[in-house]
Amino acid sequence: MKSVKPLNNINMNLLVPLNALLEYRSVTAAADHLGIAQPTMSKHLAQLRKILNDKLLVRVGSHMQLTPTAHNIQATLSGVLSGLNDIFAASYDPLKDKREFIIACPDYVSVYIMPDVIKPYLHDESQLSFHIINWDVQARSLLLEGLIDFVITIDEDFAPNFIRKVIDKDDWVMVMSEKHPLANKETITMEEFLAQPHAQTITGGGSSKQIDRYLKNHQLKRNVRLITQGYIQMYVAIRDSELISVVPKHQAANMAKDFGLTYRSLPFDVAQSQHSVYWHEKFNNDSSHQWFRDHIINEIVNHPCHRVD
User: Fold this and answer.
1) Full DSSP string of 171-191
2) What angle do CA 300, 306, 309 make, to 5 degrees?
3) More exposed terminus of the chain, fewer Cβ within 10 Å: N or C?
């Protein structure tokens, strides 16, 4: 009989990857399901094979199949995980938790959305505390050190050991002052778009890479005249100038009244922005972290400032 390591020598964080591997029978599909990089999932599989002293997944023809040991594990693992989730969900009480959550996000999110997200936990009965910081280059460094609980962003360049949950997608639009010379036009041409002075916001992931990547691929470049580290600062500048910028549609729609702005569709087709919550994989099975990230995701998706009514 094969020997299996004692339970106290096993990394319990591997149970969720193991379940995904057995269900999808593919490193790539299991990684996609959990929102982690394929190299990370391959590392998990290697660790599981060593711990369980079994291949778990073997190639048969063009497909991967479970070994007899893997079949035996699969028969009970999903029930075990379901039971564990019930235990930790029942045992976690946010009113008794004294944890400080550190959240990095752009100023639009921190000013217009996060106050409502954390408001239910700022009363006397709760002991939770929150530290909301701007999502910038310094915050990225803290994130890489595992010192930030969550990042809320449309940026996409993250290391493989960060887990991503895409919470929404949105069109990109061109935003400008209501007094802009192009504001009375319903359709803006590419020539007009490129001829305008542009403002651009740089966050922790850099500038609007998706837009500039498209333009570069078509041998085009916009005339960036202003770079800011926050969206609100940029909207103030746009309001009082002939600058334009490219932002997610929900931002433009919700900021239009406050800043005297208007917005138009872009003169080219580009993939939608993806609004995501990221966290370090070390937090993935942390019960309080899991509870609060579920709360964050639900509140952001349903917040009026995240939607276009």
Assistant:
1) -EEEEEETTSTTTT-S---HH
2) 135
3) N
Is pLDDT above 50 for 119? yes
* pLDDT, tens digit (0-9, with 9 covering 90-100), for 130-179: 999 999 888 988 888 888 999 999 988 888 888 888 888 999 999 999 99
CA–CA separation, 164 and 143 (whole Å): 13
Do 150 and 192 sit in the same domain of this protein? no
Q: Does residue 151 share a domain with residue 140?
A: yes
Q: Which of 200, 255, 256, 198 is nearest to 230 (CA)?
A: 200
**pLDDT of the residue at 49:** 93
Instruction: Tell me how far CA of residue 52 lies from CA of 7, 45, 69, 80, 83, in angstroms.
Output: 11, 10, 9, 17, 22
Other Cβ atoms within 10 Å of 181 Cβ, number: 11
Q: Where in the sequence is the domain holding 265, given as residue range(s)?
A: 172-271
Hey, is 197 helix, strand or coil?
strand
- Our measurement of the distance from residue 157's CA atom to the centroid of its chain's CA atoms, rounded to an integer in Å, reads 10
Do 219 and 302 lie in a common domain? no
Write b or e for each residue in 199-214: b if 16 or more Cβ atoms lie within 10 A of its Cβ, otherwise e: bbbebbbeebebbbeb
Among 266, 119, 91, 247, which Cα is nearest to 193's? 266
* Interstrand relation of 261-265 and 172-177 (parallel, antiparallel or unpaired): antiparallel
Residues composing the chain: 309
Phi-psi region of 206 (alpha: psi -120 to 50; beta: other; left: phi over 0): left
Give the number of other CB atoms < 10 A from CB of residue 241: 16
